[in-house]
Design a protein that fits this description.
By secondary structure, the protein is α+β, with helices and mostly antiparallel strands. The chain is 30% helix and 32% strand.
Length: 310
Amino acid sequence: MTVTVRDLRSEDRAEVEAFAHVRHLALPHILWTPEAIVHNLAHTHPDARFRSLVAEEDGEVVGTAQVQLAYDSPEPGQGMLNIYVHPDRIRRGAGDLLVRAAERHLAGHGATKLFAWVLDEPANRAFAERRGYRASRSAHFLRLDLTGGALPPLQSPAPGVELRSAADFADDPRPLFELDAATTSDEPSDVDAELTDYETWVEEIWKHPLLDRELTTIALVEGHPAAFSLAWTDAATGRYATAMTGTARPYRGRGLAKLAKNDSLHRARAAGYTVALTGNDTGNGPMLGINKWFGYEICASEVRYVRELA
């Protein structure tokens, strides 16, 4: 049996669904939908050189890769590749071919330092290390059953604090862009990012098909957006995910992120969502503490691997 690698055909609905299915089987702690996969291909900034690759065996999609340059980082020459293979089709060459294709693509566009997330399991880590990657930082996936135990009770905002949804900013989301940019720059990562292009943010984030504007909560202080909890949802599976929670520096230490996330979680449960997902860098103690307070439990971990190209 021969395994081949090529670009995902975004116009082929069945193939996109197969891509999403393989990703879900390999990494069920993240929301994968065909609409989101197509959106990423169509709307990621051209400077990212973004590609989605498939490994195919006898007409079946058995492996996937998403590959891009860190175009929004102040440090040039950084590339990212994330490879996931169908759990029942491992050790048949798909992963190796996807890595080679991804590395060629990134190197061809000037990348000299590559980053890849790898599930924290012996076989996955050994796969990365055999290919010259070294372990860096780590992160946890967390899960909360919204049908089980009670959420912390809702709290009334302090005087001068107001909770709003992202839908309330539909006519002008720029204040949310500015808040997202301010908090993203402080996000723990070995690849720094700077959000400076409002129009790109609108296309990539504000118009993303997983973004649930009704369930995304913003805490305003004296009318100024100060903290937020950004919600992604997949109504077909009843899953809700927190894609980002953050507070602008001048407003930290006042419990605003916890207030916003609690509001969003309560409304997600009322809307019928049954599972809440999120992820945290293992060094982000404050956010891990907040999620523990909500009742989230760690369900898996991953390690960021790095490779320097000659």
